[in-house]
Automatic annotation (TrEMBL):
Species per Swiss-Prot/TrEMBL record: Chloropicon primus
A single GO BP: PSII associated light-harvesting complex II catabolic process
Domain of life the protein comes from: Eukaryota
Xref: Pfam families: adh_short
Protein name: Short-chain dehydrogenase/reductase
Amino acid sequence: MCDMTGVDFYNHLVPFAASAGLCLSFSLAAQYEIGRFRTTQKLNRRMNVVITGGTKGIGKALAREFLSSGDRVFLASRDSEAVELARKDLAAQTGRGLDSILGASCDVSDYEDVVNLGDEAQRGMGRIDIWINNAGASGSFKSFLDSDAESIRRVVHTNLLGTMHGTKVAMSLFRKQGQGGHVFNMDGAGYDGNATPNYAAYGATKAAITQMNRSLRKEASARVGVHTLSPGMVLTDLLLEGSTAENRKAFNILCEMPETVASNLVPRVRYAAVKGSSGDQVRYLTLRRALGFLVNWHKRNGRFFDRSGDRTYSSEKERLTPARSAERELMTALTALQQRNQIAKTVDRLANLYSMCFIGIYLVLAEIATAQSIY
């Protein structure tokens, strides 16, 4: 087995291939680390975020976390007074100025209202990086036959039409601004097509959103990401709407407070946005976490509701005291320190990988030189 120079590589094929493989594998690993490093660097960039249904519950908690990360938010709600109250609350809780916490009233079931929301958000922030369709309604806990038509209409118009309107407006704005953006649509019970008894309308809307997301990921341009955001069971008015005492006792096991869930989701939402991907499923209540909750049910029982189904937890204002705010600032500082340490570790890994690449190249050249000297 000879090349054009007459060198016989037969006896050197295995070490040559091993050296080349070593060089290639370390080169690929280095490229992967470079990609991670660039993404980590982008996480320091301030983002502009629109959140529908952002004045309470998980929407407000998400806004709080984005603000703590240095981002700007634009809140939307049907009630203009609720928007102003949420802005003041978030400013007090995060120490950010009202110029970083914008908002407007919007009925997401009205397409023109959502168009106006998008225009106002773009005027106020310049560009939009992330749009979260969080506004939702669950309806009363009743069988489909016992549910009134108005309740069904409200659930479908808010959850499904509202998400469609928000997604369409967001994707249009992303295309116009030229640098793309990312829309996150909320899933919920029924997203996987499983039955949701006594919440049939709600489950139907979530299943439809899953199908819509799959279709839009095929339609969206390269710079537009369409993702799923799954908070799981969050202790909000939406979850408690129409619930019974028995429901509420069960909530102790799988539920979490909005701020707990948001602190887990927001860093992952930001990462998905800076990574520039599409189709991410950012999920809090994973199978592993749910199994952990169930195994420790005896420790979680009675956390939020007593045996009669009566509330035992503190209000948002009581939970987010100045002491808690100071604790959150400390956690933010620790997160920044962890990011800097991660960058340092990435640089070290890159240096090691490139060293190994050069060693691999050296071994390949040495094998060729050895073959040439022998033959």
